[in-house]
Amino acid sequence: MNGSVTAPITAIVLAGSRGPADPVAVAAGVSHKALAPVAGVPMLARVLATLAAVPRVGRTLVAIERPELLGAHPAFVPFLSGGAVTVLPAAPSPSRSVLAALDAVEAPFPCLITTADHPLLTPEMVEHFWARLPPDADAAAALARAETIRAAYPDSRRTYLRFKDGACSGCNLFALRTEAARRVVAFWRRVEQDRKRPWRMVRRIGLFHLLSFALGRLTLDDAVAALGRRTGAALATVEMPFADAAVDVDRPEDLALAEAVLTKRKA
How far apart are CA 178 and CA 158, in angstroms? Predict the structure, then answer.
């Protein structure tokens, strides 16, 4: 292992968009989803403020299709003027954007990946995730249990992965701790390339484990172990006790929920 949970973190923020027709951008009346204001502040600016408040984070890279959008927006001046945030052009897919960001800087590991549509992210969430990374993991993902999310937001629509030992939702927080984690991102890229060819995806993931998952017989630990064997890296998950960690803004109703949460936080 050449990564460390105590070394300064390189944070990568994926700020890709589905274009001006993105439903969140349309609802907010902006040209890019990352600029959609939540309680008066662009989503991406909220994420950057959170990362700036985490002592572990040494530098932040933002991958966005049009870097000039940030330079022209006053909300991003404090982040760009200090030099702690570097803006890179986004690649055609999330995995390619991550690979490009890793190649853009020296010594990128350990690395934290999150997304611009995560305005409810807090320093406490980042610290919880990073402090609980297993020391032997090359890469890890943050997950929240369905019961945690439903207790806070019983009417909110979320996407759940359903395992034998319970359902969970991703939290848009990933750790790449070592060089071996590049293999995980490379595997992710290959799966992205096969998204329109389902049987190739099945071969990459493994038919047995895919069927086990579909039948509700696959545990989370078994799934992580199987994916680790496929990628050639040691993988792990970290359970998050925060329902807000699983709230990303993909739909206009998510935007309304995030507004309500942030208004309540201020109260």
Answer: 31
Q: pLDDT digits over 198-221, tens only? A: 444 445 556 555 556 665 778 889
Write down the H helix ranges in 105-216: 123-131, 146-152, 181-193, 198-205, 207-214
On whether residue 197 sits in a domain, the answer given is no
Q: How far is Cα 176 from Cα 97, in angstroms, rounded to an integer?
A: 14
Q: How many structural domains compose the chain?
A: 1
Q: What is the CATH number of the domain that holds 23?
A: 3.90.550.10
> What is the pTM (predicted TM-score) of this model?
0.91
Q: Please give the average per-residue pLDDT across 180-188, as a whole number.
A: 94
